[in-house]
Amino acid sequence: MSNHITIKDIAKALGISTSTVSRALSDAWDVKRETREQVLAMAKKLNYHPNLNAKNLQNKRTGTVGIIIPEFVSSFFPRVIMGIQEVLYGENYHMFITQSNESRSQELENMRMLREHMVEGIIISTTNEGGNEDAYKELIDSGMPLVFFNRCPKTLAAPKVMIDDCLMAEKAVEHLIDTGRRNIVHLVGPVNLEVSASRSQGFANTLNRHGIDPEGRCLPAGIFIKDGYDAAQRLLDAGAPLPDAIFCFNDPVAIGAMKALKNAGIRIPQDIAIVGFSEGSMATVVEPQLTTVQQPMHEMGRQAATLLLKQLHATRRQMPQTVCLDATLNIRDSSVAK
Questions:
Q1: Is the bond preceding 50 in cis, omega lying within 30 degrees of 0?
Q2: What is the signed CA dihedral for 229, 230, 234, 235, rounded to 10 degrees?
Q3: C or N: which end of the chain has fewer Cβ atoms within 10 Å?
Q4: Which residues of the chain have pLDDT under 70?
Q5: DSSP string, 69-81
Q6: Who contacts 327 (Cβ-Cβ below 8 Å, separation ≥6)?
Q7: How far apart are CA 190 and CA 192, in angstroms?
């Protein structure tokens, strides 16, 4: 039997109008008892299920929230989604999850598609290409509740859930200096991401405090393992003295750098200490285990969902709220003291 049985099929089978079927299914007072019983029996026979979207649209709700994330490659975003799911499912909302593959155009397409499916709100972490601020603003101006997490546009007035990336970068670099390293370089994330700028700023702040000139110490990398591998290989190929420590934009970049260095016979941490950022699932699997900043991914998802629900339940537009969560520096073997 088809999974797309409608009230028209029930009406045709019984030889009655669709409006009578609709009223019978809604237990309307003006439908005879025997007619209602016939409709319910036929609905069961045909395996009819009500169209919840159509029903909810009558009440101006669909019970669905859209999620837009930039990628599924790392473990970061799936773990945030688990936190979002925990809160939304508890409030009888469902999720429509999309991923942008780090593409600005795909992110725009995801927003358009979610709008067409009439989601009630959207939770989003932006792509590394950036450039969609006007589209975000258009959504907000149209009344669509929107919450950003982790990768948040700096200039947009919207609810956000994040950590203090600058502060945690400072703590990570301070740790490297505490272990005796002073020739430190930073493998920088995508230039269009505010989190990249914040972590680079934290790197520079710490070096300046210790009288170390940060000029020339920030090297472009990216966000994936290959990006870290390629950046470290460029260091090796340059022929200049290697740094004694590398602070990386995220864990995949750190793991890629470790692979290139180890292939070249460089010992970690004896020759070069490595620190990552984000506490991915591989941090304790690689050898040596990776020192990294642990972001509260599950709680980040919970807070993002909570901020969205506040907007959905509000009787009037809310002032944008920013939630800044605590993070932790997990010190492991990749950066032990010299």
A1: no
A2: -20
A3: N
A4: 1-4, 50-61, 338
A5: ES-SSSSHHHHHH
A6: 163, 164, 168, 293, 294, 295, 296
A7: 6
Residue type, 315: T
Q: What is the tens place of the pLDDT at every residue in 261-289?
A: 999 999 999 999 999 999 988 999 999 99
The residue behind tokens 């799911």 is 85
> In sequence order, which ranges of 186-224 are alpha helices (DSSP H)?
194-209
Q: What angle do CA 144, 120, 323 make, to 5 degrees?
A: 65
User: What letter does residue 150 receive in the DSSP assignment?
Assistant: S
Average pLDDT, the chain: 92
Residues 161 and 300 sit within 8 Å (Cβ to Cβ):
yes
Write out the two tokens for 73.
Answer: 């490659």
φ and ψ at residue 304, rounded to 5 degrees: -60, -45
Decide: 243 and 177 in contact? Cβ < 8 Å.
no
The token pair that represents 223 in the structure block: 């966000």
Closest to 190 (Cα-Cα) out of 325, 322, 70, 335:
70
> Is 24 buried (19+), middle (13-18) or exposed (0-12) by CB count in 10 A?
buried
Contact 91, 120 (CB under 8 A): no
Q: Give the CB-side neighbour count of residue 146, counting CA atoms within 13 A.
A: 24
Provide the token pair at 86.
């925990």
